[in-house]
Amino acid sequence: MAETLHIIGGGMAGSEAAWQAANIGVPVVIHEMRPKVETFAHRTGDLAEMVCSNSFRSDDDEQNAVGLLHWEMRAAGGLIMAMADQHRLPAGGALAVDRDPFAASVTAALKDHPLVRIEYDEITELPADGHWIIATGPLTSEGLGNAIAAETGKDALAFFDAIAPIIYHDSIDMSRAWMQSRYDKGETEEERTAYLNCPMDRDQYEAFIDALLAADKTEFHEGETATYFDGCLPIEVMAERGRETLRFGPMKPVGLTNPHAPDVKPYAVVQLRRDNALGTLYNIVGFQTKMKYGAQTSVLKMIPGLENAQFARLGGIHRNTFLNSPTLLDDQMRLRSRSHIRFAGQITGVEGYVESAAMGLLAGRLAAAEILGQPLQGPPQDTAMGALIHHITGGAEAKTFQPMNVNFGLFRPVEGLKGGRRGRKDRYKAYTDRAKTAWSDWLSRCTLDENQTV
């Protein structure tokens, strides 16, 4: 029997790492502090609980970097992608997930795996020996966070994530709202009508911005500074950057026609996306917020169609910590000062569910291969995962390191292709074709137990 791999944290990254390692034949123990120790954002004790959006973003594996990452994870037998596909919701060209059944299915799959054990305990110190992956995510507990900071000798970087509100569908006024994806994107009628749209005229938009800027906000503790990841900015922070910022961001009115007034072009549009399979819950797209609860309800009810909205969950804000990975981790995702410890997920400085799970997939495979005495080189830089891990473990500038989504800007150029917007379609297709070949070649060199299926 191989030595045991211990994983601290049962989120996206920890769950995927456990699945990958166990399928190679390595016994795994997942240490998850919930539900014994709660966090601000989590509601359950399930593994891989989605606490912010329910979207895995674009599923286009030919023209989008995150869609390519989906493809690579599916090709590697990823648990997270398999369960996301199983609990998929209509979302145009995106992959949205019914969050509660998704997390329950991930939890059940890991509990049923003969080589996986789950222990519900909080670990507050760095382990002195053994084989470990720390995948505690943005809500790393204070005790463990302090231990990591003490070991690295550097201050953990911090920014703040804001959570979008969720509304009960039956409280939305559909005489004012309508269902449509931007530019009617999608192959089926369900996909083409995946988003619920609430239009605003100019006066309504201006009044909304005024109320948003004046609303009571969550205050930070003494000594804390708010450095947000640009992909998850609170709406009030966007509004502070300029009155038109929201109208050119999550509230852009393009690609939509209001069937209630087809000749009137909305000045701005608020979109909501289905949050569960029943269609009873909808989250407000891009509306992460740090407004206090009372202010949220009054400001959000100014949106046409949401005047009588009932909230299943109000928005909130939480601290998010991550390592300065370019200085602290090697290309095997190991802590340079303690090589028996790997890190995975958002704590490494990637941003997003998919990126976090992808780093868990790599950490699980790399750790398992090392335990079995067959060290594995990381994936080629021309793959989506290779580009991402290269960025966080050395490609990024350490002095200005910030959380990063996967994007084609991390990919090495393909020679002979035209730059700029006009050449983008051919360039992206070349990136994805090259990546798929490189990823398939890398997987063929990884020994997996083919008897394990999702």
From TrEMBL:
Domain annotation MnmG N-terminal: ranges: 5-374
Reactions catalysed: uridine(54) in tRNA + (6R)-5,10-methylene-5,6,7,8-tetrahydrofolate + NADH + H(+) = 5-methyluridine(54) in tRNA + (6S)-5,6,7,8-tetrahydrofolate + NAD(+); uridine(54) in tRNA + (6R)-5,10-methylene-5,6,7,8-tetrahydrofolate + NADPH + H(+) = 5-methyluridine(54) in tRNA + (6S)-5,6,7,8-tetrahydrofolate + NADP(+)
Compartments where located: Cytoplasm
Main location as per UniProt: cytoplasm
Cofactors: FAD
GO BP: tRNA methylation; tRNA wobble uridine modification
EC numbers, comma separated: 2.1.1.74
Superkingdom as given in the UniProt entry: Bacteria
Similarity comment text for this entry: Belongs to the MnmG family. TrmFO subfamily.
Function: Catalyzes the folate-dependent formation of 5-methyl-uridine at position 54 (M-5-U54) in all tRNAs.
HAMAP family: TrmFO (MF_01037)
UniProt name for this protein: Methylenetetrahydrofolate--tRNA-(uracil-5-)-methyltransferase TrmFO
Gene name as annotated: trmFO
